[in-house]
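Listing S7. Sequence submitted for prediction.
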Amino acid sequence: MKGREFMMSSDGNPPANVDRYYPTAGRVILHVDMNAFYCSVHEAEEPDLYKGKATAVAGSSELRKGVIVTCSYAARNRGISTGMVVHQAMKKCPDLIVIRPDFHLYRKYSREFMQIAYSYTPQLEATSIDECYLDITGSRQFGNPMEIAESIQRRIKDELGLPCSIGIAPNKLLAKMASDLKKPNGISILRMRDVPRILWHRPCNEMFGIGKKTAEKLKKLGIETIGQLAKSDENMLTELFGVNGAWLKNSANGINHSAVHAEREANKSIGHTTTLPADVSDMNEIHRVFLNISDQVARRLRKHEMFSQGIQITIRTPDMKTITRSRLMEVPTEDATVIYREACKLFEKHWGSGKPVRMLGVTLQNLIPREESAVQMDLFEYEQKPKKDNLIRIMDQLRDKFGENAVVTAGMLGDDPSVLLRNHKVRGTSLQKDNLQSLD
């Protein structure tokens, strides 16, 4: 059996005995992966402009120096790939349509496809804007695993106009690997007994969780395929990779016990990165970027009813070198102003002014539930905090109802606050229309 034959009959329908793939005991996990998500969203919004065409989302099409974040499958068939600079892509594909990102739109579609998935199980773990895990072990009322996957895929296509691939497996690792087997718009089952036949001939870097550096280290040991890794000596791997050694061997054998963490479960960290359309060294522009990011992560922090005790900034240089710096804060916070101030301090201390950057990020760490945080306040803060909390709550409610751009701070607007009068959605600044979110 090859390709989809092990999971689909010749007429494209699931086999009548599909239930035999999953006994009543054990978990059933789905991994829903949206295909070319950003480009697919634009195609769904404006099919007359983009349907079936070679498109790419990048931050600076005019300067031709922007980096492609994602591209349509039509573009991929023409040799375009993620990470390619726009002017290089245009040489390969002169009729490539380059689209500026619209993250408000992407978040809207993300919420909607997640809501469809959530209607089949509350056990949903969103791992990024365009993918999630579902534990459907207790969802038999909706059908067998294949029927549930087909229903989710069909509804996302019919209701949102978006394609997705879905992996079905007994654990998260195999579900993730399965969703990559058939793109776009595929459904794949990957059982434990399928692992040797489906995965073992593949190179190690195709195993989810194994990066380029780890694959290179394994290659030096003569371990080039997932099958060789599965049969390797665990003690040797532990000596070289520490506690990750056992994980590597288990993963190669399809063994993974991690649970699907529902969204309500506390996060260990909350972060966001912004890739800039060009190298930026102006401190005022860098401050505006940090202000925007701090606002986003603080809002997510409040949604999870958490406080942050630590902060980390990420800096990526024009030559793609990544630097991180972090510190513990004196008082736990959920306040975007505090987060922004701490991020700027870290940047000025460890990077300084005048040196160019290409990407900036803020990650909130050491999170604790709101009710466990003993916030220490001086007299002024104590008197003003109820008013401030009420204002923040109203701003959050406005954003929930009218979108993220319904309320912004003056610092996000740059040097010309009159932009508010020209564009009520405040999407005219270089910061907001050029920010790019890193993809996995």
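Caption to Listing S7: primary sequence and predicted structure tokens for the chain studied. Confidence is low (pLDDT under 50) at residues 1-25, 374-385, 406-440. The two ends are 31 Å apart (CA to CA).
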